[in-house]
Amino acid sequence: MSQANLPETSSSAPASSSTDTHSLYSSIFLAGVYGSNIAHHSSRGGGSAGSPSAAARNCIKPWDRRSDVGVWTESLEAGHLVINIPFGSPVKVSSVLINQGAGQTAPHRLRIYVNRPNGLGLEDVFEGSSPSTSTGTPSSGLPQADFLLREQDQAASSAEERVQEYPLGRFAARFASVNSLHVVLSDAEEPPSRVYYLSFRGTAPKDPPNRNDRLTVQAEDAASNPMGKVRESAGGASAPVRGSSHAADGTGGQAR
Prior knowledge:
Layout: E1 9-10, E2 34-36, H1 52-57, E3 73-74, E4 81-99, E5 109-114, H2 122-128, E6 135-136, E7 145-148, E8 164-167, E9 178-186, E10 194-195, E11 197-203, H3 212-224, E12 237-238, E13 241-242, E14 247-248
GO cellular component, one term: nucleus
Pfam families: PITH
Family: Belongs to the PITHD1 family.
């Protein structure tokens, strides 16, 4: 995987407020969230989340629960963590918020795919991987964004301060009308990969149509066949991006 400039943290990231007016959490169709290669046990007490779908939802929390590290989403031993996230209506996504924790289970790479009707499974991830062309359009089979995650700030005094924002500035056109996001976390020093908090910022329609019934059927069908693949033709591509700890507009930053 080629090295690239680091995207910088957005200066518009919410601070200590209990609400985030740009959060897309309420637009996520939570009942339709499911994952691939997800461990059932994902809590401090080692209890089962009940199903891979329930475990996949553990990390998707509202902004006021960003400091909750008592539950998380974790991969199986293969190390790649795949989460499929549908929205109730099309949204525009401007950035990703994540707390992947620190230590050997912290993933170092984040890939995001857009609008895959049949979802994303491990087979799709491995088939679409390329060491020379890391991102592309939705029709390329490659991810639409590829970030090398920043090292967690060990000096952060609280879990709230460990939430980092990755603007999608250079990938904005690919995230202008999003029905679903498909997130892949990987490259932990030692599997499994783990994520404590995952959310998105952007804009959503004020009066979205009710698509929940149709999404429920799609999610059930996709969950029963998480390895189902979307046949796509090759497309344009660009290099991956790293994250940094400086505030800017998301178009690139200091190389690490």
